Amino acid sequence: MAANLSTQVQGGVGVTEPGISHEEHLHHDDHHHDQHWLFKYVFSTDHKVIAKQFLITGIFWAILGGTLSSLFRLQLGWPEATMEWLTPVFGKWIEAGKLSPDFYLALVTMHGTIMVFFVLTAGLSGTFSNFLIPLQVGARDMASGFMNMLSYWFFFVSGIIMFSSMFIETGPASAGWTIYPPLSALPQAIPGSGMGMTMWLVSMALFIVSQLLGGVNYITTVINLRTRGMSMSKLPLTIWSFFLTAVLGLLSFPVLFSAALLLIFDRSFGTSFFLSDIYIAGQALNHTGGSPVLFQHLFWFLGHPEVYIVIMPAMGMVSEILATNARKPIFGYRAMIGSLLGISLLSFVVWAHHMFVTGMNPFLGSVFMFLTLIIAVPSAVKTFNWLATLWRGNIRFTTAMLFSIGFVSLFISGGLTGIILGNAALDIQMHNTYFVVAHFHLVMGSSAFFGLFAGVYHWFPKMFGRMMDEKLGYIHFWLTFIGVYLVFMPMHYVGIAGFPRRYYAWTGFDSFSQFADLNKFISIAAILAFFAQFVFIFNFFYSIFRGRRATENPWRSTTLEWTTPLHPGHGNWPGEIPAVYRWPYDYSKPGAEEDFIPQNVPFSKTQSSNLPYESEME
Amino acid sequence: MSTISTTQPLSSADAADRPRSGNWDGGNEPFKASYGKLMMWFFLLSDAFTFAAFLTTYGLIRHRYPAFDAAAGKVFEFSTAYWPVPDKVFDGFPGLHGQSVPLGFVALMTMILIFSSVTMVLAVEAGHRMDKKDVQKWLLWTILFGATFLGSQAWEWSHFIHGTDEGTKMLDGTTVYGANLAVNQYGPVLFADLFFFITGFHGTHVFSGVCLLVWSFIATTNGTFEKRGHYEMVEKIGLYWHFVDLVWVFVFTFFYLV
């Protein structure tokens, strides 16, 4: 019996006898071998290839987004320094040895847009939902491989448009990633409100189509394509988080689509949905009756769920990695699902906490404050569950584990300031300062990045059949972890001192001069942390080709993706898809032969570790 | 080898090793719906949020303007000072120039669209019976009603754009006939903006629906669905079509009734 179990563990597909003539087997495996490379690697419908496409495109965007932030940190840290040396690259954007202020606005706008949408939405969900959903629920592929492929290519075209907008004469969109009208609605307002803004809107419309195509696929796959025995209460938490993330995207992105479409009409066809009573350069515009606050409502109806779209996949992956590497069942599996559901639900009723000072009715503000602070409850449930999972665990400090622990740390540090900012009264002081910037960069920006890194380090062996280098991983982790805190901790102080966001320079204010050193410090830390990412990039690409060869289940994990062959083909399992008998967290079960029991091992094979009721289970 | 059943893996011939097989236990379709149908449902849910955002926009802007106060004893006339009364704006009917038929034409349009939903149901039902002839017949009726609705909307738009014979005298002394995105004889410009935008967005949906119906009619005629063994595609397009009808009921309510 023990021998049988271990073949299942190592061989992965122990429940299947090779050579069984099986309908799905024939259907999925035999005609994929002689595919043209164009359909195998480029226009592929295989979810694993699409996931890698999303990941590598995401890495491209992350490098770009990080570069932009280094540029504006240069400006903020050394406002007097000459930037002449950048002229060969940026041409007229460097005016008299300085970054032009318009260029600065373009930099922060594109940094936000790229990081939020292209990296942490498409790069994160796109990669891991695609990669893990079919593998972990036990499916051959996504429900519709073709739509999945379209999802990537819509994202790609959307990216091409966004990228091109950075090379046009008037520059890319510059109204901030939230593109509030009237600034974004009036092409004559600033250079960035011209062609660049139009391209931003078109790009985002295509991006939303991509999200929709991906989202319906993720949801449908989780509902319909789970393997035999994989009930919703046996799903790994990764799948729960991807599933709910897709639901959030499905319900919130269409509202951004509405807002973008209305804004396009305001910009290009003379309507006044978001415009009223505006003088520009002494000229009264004939727009009347619209409401810019309406745009903010529509935008944040997406914008708030969006931060959960960014963080929830990271939460799911971290839960999985913490349990695997603590060799313990996740603490409070059902509470974890419940808190994900709670967060998903609440995320739709808190959007106006981004708008406390917009002139919205203060009574409405207190309702939104109340709802916002309730989010602390499911968030705390998750945090305590993670900590309880670690407690007295048999911890293995893999790189992925370090990043997961780092995620929990950042989520706590950033979450605490959320309680401050969620207060309508405190927000009057804090809004639009660097305190806000520090808050969301910790709680969703850096945390989601840590989740992304954890995911890449953990599932790299399944993606490429090789391991990433652990030493480089450690270096990457410590530089990034320390770097992130050195950047964002001081930023809270700068924010409390009243530094507003999106200002090109503060040299005109005497009261701010005492913080010049702190700003320099933040800039140095930010640029160093950015360069530390190249350790990861080197490690990633080097390991794809030269990394140590992986085994089938290197982390001794319980979930189904590790029962596939080292290089799973299109269709994932060469034989029949394994059936599932148990939850995904049977780590260190007392009485078990090994310290983990994969989900596809029936209870009849594990009599020694079964709990009384389990022996009677089917 | 081929005698081994596909539902029972070899190593679990023992009955106790079979995984659970409840409705939500995996290996089946818990909503008894194929993935394609589920996807259509989720797309519609998503699209409903898009329309909800537009109708919210309508509601919010509508309430930034006062309504016409009939109790004050004044006779209604078009003015940018208040939101127009729909009965007065939409009172034209093809062939009855100069006569007032409040909401008559739009009522007809709405009836046509609702009828198209009925014929769509019949097409889906015929598909369940694998009755190719009937599917063709009812699809054709649906296409006809859908196209008629689109034509009627074109007339409605053109009537709205051209305006009344008298026009409306604006505050600056000019007389405005009809409406476009920048001027509006019937009331605030935003009334026209919203009318064009929302009915236009709905019309685009109807147009896409008609295109899908035409495509499925061709596919039915070619026997594509017959070969496939089911007319599920017709059913999925049917879901979309009913959704578009349902949205029209809301659009109709917002623009014409309240």
From TrEMBL, chain A:
GO molecular function, one term: heme binding
GO cellular component: membrane
Any Pfam family: COX1
Keywords, comma-separated and alphabetical: Electron transport, Heme, Iron, Membrane, Metal-binding, Respiratory chain, Transmembrane, Transmembrane helix, Transport
PROSITE patterns xrefs: COX1, COX1_CUB
Polar residues bias: start-end ranges: 601-612
Membrane topology: Multi-pass membrane protein
Cellular localisation: Membrane
Family: Belongs to the heme-copper respiratory oxidase family.
Protein name, as recorded: Cbb3-type cytochrome c oxidase subunit I
Species: Hymenobacter sediminicola
TrEMBL record, chain B:
Biased composition (Polar residues): 1-11
Major localization listed first in the record, in broad terms: membrane
Organism superkingdom: Bacteria
Residue ranges of domain Heme-copper oxidase subunit III family profile in the record: 17-258
Pfam family, one: COX3
Membrane topology per record: Multi-pass membrane protein
Keywords per UniProt: Cell membrane, Membrane, Transmembrane, Transmembrane helix
Subcellular location: Cell membrane
Spans through the membrane: 38-61, 103-126, 138-155, 194-218, 239-257
Region (Disordered): 1-25
Family the UniProt entry places it in: Belongs to the cytochrome c oxidase subunit 3 family.
Protein name: Cytochrome c oxidase subunit 3
